[in-house]
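Late entry, evening session. Most of the bench is empty. Finally got around to the prediction I had been postponing all week. Sequence below, unchanged from the version circulated by S.P.
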Amino acid sequence: MIFTETKLKGAFVIDLEKRSDERGFFARTYCADEFAKHGLKTNMPQSNMSLSKQKHTIRGMHFQVDGAEEAKLIRCTKGSILDVIIDIRKDSATYCEHISVELTEENHRMLYVPEGFAHGFITLTENVEVSYQVSQFYSPGKEKGIRWNDPLFGINWPTSNPIISDKDGVHPDFIK
């Protein structure tokens, strides 16, 4: 795996090191030793998957608090997404900054999101599957969200009229 740290400290884009031949390729998508060498969480006790049927579906911006903060390893296994993370760590030099990374079934790219970030994505195609591992178990009472189009962040979504759940549609603006 090739780890490239983003401008947001602790967040990495991870590209596969493919071993190719006439059959296709083989690559590791996770190795605890390699993750540990980069200071990343290696205990991922829960894996999740989502299917979004329609293009321009937004899921997010989600995070957990009060000891339930989670690191995530995100991968798009079918279709493509624009994955967005926001640094909401108050002591961080990049507090309230965000990045977006295109993850597709073709590029096989992954995004490692450290604890203390809000996370969400928008589908760029129909019938998108996203798989992610998390470092904490889901804690419904500790889940929070930020409005997808909060002007504080100025996220450049590829649509102004996304498909969004009722739950995600009522997230408040972030209080800095």
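Two things to note before I forget:
Residues 69 and 115 are 5 Å apart (CA to CA).
Residues 32-37 form the longest helix (6 residues).
Will write this up properly tomorrow.
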